[in-house]
Amino acid sequence: MATSEQTRVLTRPSAGAVVSFTYALVCYAAFAAVFLYAVAFLADAVVPRTVDHGGPAASTGVAVVIDAVLLGVFAVQHSVMARPEFKRRWTTVVPRHVERSTYVLASTAALVLVFWQWRPIPGVVWDVTAPWARALAWMLYVAGWLWVLAMSFAIDHFDLFGLRQVTRYLRGLADDPSAFVLPWVYRLARHPMMIGFIVGFLATPTMSVGHLLFAALGCAYILVGVRLEERDLSAELPEYDAYAAVTPRFVPGLTRRRR
Predict the structure, then answer these.
(1) Rounded to whole angstroms, how far apart are CA atoms 209 and 141?
(2) If we measure between CA atoms, which residue out of 238, 114, 108 comes closest to residue 180?
(3) I need a surface site. Which of 4, 77, 123, 125 has the fewest CB within 10 A?
(4) pLDDT at residue 13 greater than cutoff 90
(5) How far is CA 80 from the centre of its chain?
(6) Greater confidence, 138 or 176?
(7) How deeply is 74 buried, as exposed, middle or buried, from its count of CB atoms within 10 A (0-12, 13-18, 19+)?
């Protein structure tokens, strides 16, 4: 005899569930494309507009202001929409099962705005000339972004980008409640994915002023963002405070949370 869950799985999905699933796939595909564009954007290669070339011309002062505002728009969107208070209100408008996909879509749109309107700022901060050192810098760059991708799978890649939620809805299953789970790498540091972002922002053989501005503001946002995330996790998961007390935020063995 089939269980109630198995029965729900065998039920034909509703048209709304199929539309939601399609919507989530489109959001995921859009973000994947923008993620790849971001890698090329900071590498100053392949794509038409990069951190150092192709954008509208502007004086240094104007460029700094515009670029900072662009990154600020992304930071505000990315942080505000991730807060539990916002989600509670937002899910009265947007169905809960597509809330994450909508968040991903909004983040994608904010990044597209950054890349589209970014003003390059010329001027070289450092330029590594030794071939072996340049190769090492590019290896670190690629490793940083691959690490980001790997860490998304270490936690739950498909949940992170909203696909698990719509898949369960398509199958007629309720969402699982939040649970405290520690993949092995998260036992070494609380935010290993952010290490990859920091490396990706900074690892380059030729650092321009504009690239350094992007990296500095990006790293600053990471430092603020992880604290907001930790506050929410502490409120949501009873085990989180004990975990945070003995696990460094970024680099294993170097930092501890002081109580």
Answers:
(1) 18
(2) 238
(3) 4
(4) no
(5) 14
(6) 138
(7) buried
If you write DSSP's letter for every residue of the chain in order, what string do you get? ---HHHHHHHSPPPHHHHHHHHHHHHHHHHHHHHHHHHHHHHHT-SSSS-SSSSSPP--HHHHHHHHHHHHHHHHHHHHHTTSHHHHHHHTTTS-GGGHHHHHHHHHHHHHHHHHHH------EEEE--SHHHHHHHHHHHHHHHHHHHHHHHHH-HHHHTTHHHHHHHHHT-PPPPP-----GGGGT-S-HHHHHHHHHHH--SEEEHHHHHHHHHHHHHHHHHHHHHHHHHHHH-TTHHHHHHHS-SSSTTT-----
Q: Is the pLDDT of residue 132 over 50?
A: yes
Give the amino acid at 28. Answer: Y
